[in-house]
Design goal:
With 380 residues, this protein is of the alpha/beta class. The chain has 10 helices and 17 strands. Strands 3, 4, 5, 8, 9, 16 and 17 form a 7-stranded mixed β-sheet that branches. Helix 3 packs across helix 4. The radius of gyration is 20 Å and the shape is globular.
Length: 380
């Protein structure tokens, strides 16, 4: 484990800041060749109410890939591949259905240190090690999801040596975890916490987790256990031992031919009360079919394909509840920081890459041979 001072070597309060920095810039929708490594990108200046962060590490997530490829576009119906998608249109190719401005520095899951502050900021933030809440809000109307943006999408993010953000999104963190370990939490664990909250997961629930070896899936397992629920994990056999180490008592193949039969074999019951799904695709009818009467299905992804057959009879005759989860309410990130500081959640760091190798990191992320999260670091 690295020390908790990883970013201290970058710069500190009072240190002269460089005028240019290294950054990986997305130049448009398309393949990995759209990621351009630049050594001459201007270091941003913090405006009123903003903090400048010396980035120590920034985690990858599916939004980076989906936005680059245009997968969110309504014209795309297939699984996430990481390749350029001909059916995508720029007009609706981001998570929020609005065009993205290029060039753009992506990266939402930042751990770093505050090295400069704009007017009106709390001076005690200077020099602090921090995490950034990636959901950008209109602070005059913070509950309005239509006014929310995403760090690294509606503004430049953390795949750079420095990044600027509204100081209200900056959360000091006290932890012995490394910058890279801390950069695994933000998007994955916020998403998982929000999914479980929307599904009202509580003690006594049996939660079926798809994509259990990924960042959100591994977070779902930990956070469901924190709520007193039992979990059943779906993942590739090669990853099963690592997933079991998270504490789940039951691991099934990621796409069983007979899901209810497999559930009965390992748990003695062929139903669950909750499905927490980030995969979708061909398995979807079996997932819904495995829900007990009154069960809850919550979804925050569809990496195996967004188009699924939906039998309304199953939905209404079994009194099911369906929820989507994207933009969490205010306060979820602060709760997550508390979990981290109290040691109630553990990072699952699969690999690190230096910042200039972001394209290779994305290729590894897309290949899905890892367990947990992949992170890029700015420190050589």
């Amino acid at each position: 484990m690295s020390t908790s001072t990883d970013t201290a070597a970058l710069s500190g309060p009072g240190a002269a800041l460089p005028r240019v920095m290294r950054a990986v810039v997305l130049t448009g929708h398309g393949g990995l060749d759209r990621l351009s490594v630049r050594d001459d990108w201007p270091v941003p200046d913090p405006g009123p109410g903003e903090a400048l962060i010396a980035v120590g590490a920034c985690g990858l997530n599916n939004t980076d890939v989906n936005t680059r490829t245009g997968w969110y576009s309504a014209g795309v119906s297939g699984a996430t591949t990481g390749e350029a998608l001909e059916a995508a249109t720029d007009a609706d190719a981001t998570w929020g259905g609005r065009p993205i401005e290029f060039p753009r520095i992506q990266g939402a899951d930042v751990c770093g240190r505050v090295v400069a502050l704009g007017d009106g900021c709390d001076a005690s933030l200077l020099g602090r090690r921090v995490l950034i809440d990636p959901w950008l809000r209109d602070w005059d109307d913070p509950l309005d999801r239509d006014k929310c943006g995403y760090y690294g999408s509606e503004c430049d993010g953390g795949f750079a040596e420095y990044s600027v953000v509204d100081a209200r999104h900056v959360h000091p963190v006290t932890s012995d975890l490394s910058d890279a370990e801390l950069a695994t939490f933000a998007t994955s664990y916020m998403t998982a916490e929000y999914m479980l909250s929307r599904a009202e997961v509580r003690s006594g629930d049996r939660v079926l987790v798809t994509g259990a070896s990924g960042g959100v899936g591994s977070a779902l397992i930990q956070l469901a256990h924190q709520r007193g629920a039992e979990t059943v994990a779906l993942c590739a056999e090669s990853k099963a031992d690592t997933v079991r180490a998270l504490g789940t008592g039951h691991v099934l193949p990621r796409a069983p031919e007979d899901l209810k039969g497999a559930l009965r074999t390992v748990t003695g019951r062929d139903e669950v009360t909750v499905v927490a799904d980030v995969v979708g695709g061909a398995l979807w009818p079996q997932l819904v079919g495995a829900l007990a009467r009154g069960g809850r299905y919550t979804c925050a992804g569809a990496i195996a394909g967004p188009m699924v057959p939906f039998d309304l009879r199953t939905f209404y005759l079994r009194d099911l509840v369906f929820t989507g989860a994207t933009v969490p309410p205010p306060g979820v990130f602060a709760d997550l920081v508390g979990y981290i500081e109290r040691g109630e959640v553990e990072p699952l760091l699969a690999a690190t890459f230096p910042l200039p190798e972001l394209a290779a990191a994305q290729a590894a992320f897309i290949a899905k041979r890892h367990v947990g999260n992949i992170v890029v670091t700015t420190i050589p």
